[in-house]
Design brief:
With 388 residues, this protein is an alpha+beta fold. The protein contains 10 helices and 13 strands. Helix 1 crosses helix 2, helix 4 packs across helix 5 and helix 7 crosses helix 9. It is flat.
Length: 388
């Protein structure tokens, strides 16, 4: 029996959170290489701390990307986020670049050769999830936690709320009844701010943003609405806490409402199935729910390094399905080539579309006309209904 009444909590972090700064820089490097060479291989990790940025990892590309271009991409990412502070500034931070050539052993496993198709860039399992509790077919707590911070960032960058600084976190707890979110029971927002503001001043600025995002769910009780509960938050970002690429994988996906295979997304080109297969699994799960075949859908895909076919395809509809799960597993293989090459081709992933994914979630976003968030398109609905 699936539980129907409960509280569930998810958190988000802003683009100025130290880990998200690193995700953004890593994905800016991926985009730089893919713009010059769509089949480039990139695995870029980033560390950021007080006025220091360190890049490390492996690349392989036919394009000759200058070290200065990589540094410029990293600094531009920090500038776009909005860091021009004494302890972390896009122009003055020291940047060290330790990117080097990809291992020949890894390249050999991934490359096509003779009758061998391109293999997966690593082993592992990846999960995709969709649920019909929001129009985006995303779990409501993580969706609203993202929207709160994204709205704050838009207001900050437009100059309408210059009191906000880039680093921020949010957390939303919703009450579910009969499996659907009905009310917010608590909200936490911690945001870096200009010197001189009290926690109550910041609360006044944040309140209308939270109220607008939550809409008919309503605000939580006043005693459960927490804004900067520790007090002052002036020193933030990498100056306040070191950041690393890939440490916010639950924020990036479903806020804990579904399993995670363990691999991070940012800094990886789409031959890495940690990223591309997770996008494919979300794409398929979303189309299953959009087709009305289930209210909830979880899909697991698994791969071995150097092997092109998925080792397994697993579907769980949580008792909400209107189609047999084993039959659906077969249908999914029929509607989409789930080899690494097939995924990249179907979703158009060999493009510079990744920096925009680095904050506010990789899922539940709107597909754009340059190929970004293609995995959010519900374009398999008719075919799934027919095959299932």
């Amino acid at each position: 029996m699936v539980r129907q009444s409960y509280l569930f909590t998810s958190e988000s972090v802003s683009e100025g959170h130290p880990d998200k700064v690193c995700d953004r820089i890593s994905d800016a490097v991926v985009d730089l290489f893919l713009a010059a060479d769509p089949v480039a291989r990139v695995a870029c990790e980033c560390l950021a701390t007080t006025n220091q940025i360190v890049l490390a990892g492996e690349v392989r590309s036919k394009a000759d990307i200058a070290q200065t271009a990589i540094e410029d991409a990293a600094r531009q990412a920090v500038k776009d986020i909005g860091y021009e502070q004494r302890g972390f500034h896009w122009r003055t931070a020291t940047l060290q670049n330790f990117l080097h050539e990809q291992s020949a052993d890894i390249a050999m496993g991934v490359d096509a050769a003779g009758n061998k198709d391109e293999g997966a860039g690593d082993q592992g399992s990846m999960f995709g999830y969709a649920v019909n509790e929001t129009p985006q077919l995303m779990p409501a707590p993580i969706l609203y936690a993202h929207q709160i911070l994204k709205t704050m960032a838009v207001l900050r960058k437009s100059g309408k709320r210059p009191e906000f600084e880039p680093d921020a976190k949010s957390q939303v707890t919703l009450r579910y009844e009969n499996g659907k979110p009905v009310a917010a029971t608590s909200v936490v927002v911690s945001t870096q701010h200009r010197e001189g503001l009290s926690p109550e001043d910041v609360k006044v600025l944040v309140r209308p943003i939270v109220a607008e995002v939550l809409g008919p769910l309503g605000m939580p009780p006043e005693e459960e609405f927490y804004v900067n509960p520790t007090g002052n938050f002036v020193v933030g970002g990498p100056d306040g806490d070191a950041g690393l690429t890939g440490r916010k994988i639950i924020v990036d996906t479903y806020g804990g409402a579904a399993p995670h295979g363990g691999g991070a997304f940012s800094g990886k080109d789409p031959t890495k199935v940690d990223r591309s297969a997770a996008y494919a699994a979300r794409y398929l799960a979303k189309n299953v729910v959009a087709a009305g075949l289930a209210d909830r859908c979880l899909i697991q895909l698994s791969y071995a390094i150097g092997v092109s076919k998925p080792l397994s395809v697993y579907v769980d509809l949580f008792g909400t399905g209107r189609v047999d799960e084993a039959k659906l597993e077969k249908a999914l293989r029929d509607v989409m080539d789930l080899s690494p090459r097939g995924i990249r081709t179907h979703l158009g992933l060999n493009k510079p579309i990744y920096a925009r994914t680095a904050a506010y979630g990789h899922f539940g976003r709107t597909p754009d006309n340059t190929g970004g968030f293609s995995w959010e398109k519900p374009d398999l609905v008719q075919e799934l209904r027919r095959l299932s």
